[in-house]
Amino acid sequence: MTQVETEPRLLRVWRGISGAVAVGLVLLALALLGVQVYAGTRDLPGPGVDMVIGHVVAGVVAVVGQVVADRARRWAAVAAGAGVLVVGAVVLWVYWWA
Q: pLDDT tens digit string along 63-90?
């Protein structure tokens, strides 16, 4: 028989959490892009191009980190997932809380 190696449940949960953060960053970037386009067509100030570009870059970095986390094993997956969470925290701090 073939032995199948299974992952620990905690690692699967960790990947799910980091994946949710990555998706949230992408959706936030898309929402800001939509608001900026709407504001630009109506002569309103909008969030600003620098904020939109920062969120798009953060979304791309988070998705790349999540792909690495999904394909890696054990500690590499944990580290990549932590990187996604750090990117999310930095975006929230720099653009929303500070």
A: 999 999 999 988 999 999 999 999 999 9
Sequence-separated (6 or more) residues with CB below 8 Å from residue 74: 11
Residue 66 maps to a domain: yes
Q: Is the dihedral of CA 36, 41, 42, 45 positive or negative?
A: positive
What's the CA dihedral at 64, 69, 72, 77 to 10 degrees?
140
pTM (2 d.p.): 0.88
Mean pLDDT to the nearest integer, 20-34: 97
78 vs 3, 4, 41, 44, 72, CA distance in Å? 24, 21, 43, 42, 9
pLDDT at res. 85? 97
Would residue 89 count as lying in a domain? yes
Q: What is the largest CA-CA distance in the chain?
A: 68
Angle 73-78-84 from CA coordinates, rounded to 5°: 120
Please count the structural domains in the chain. 1
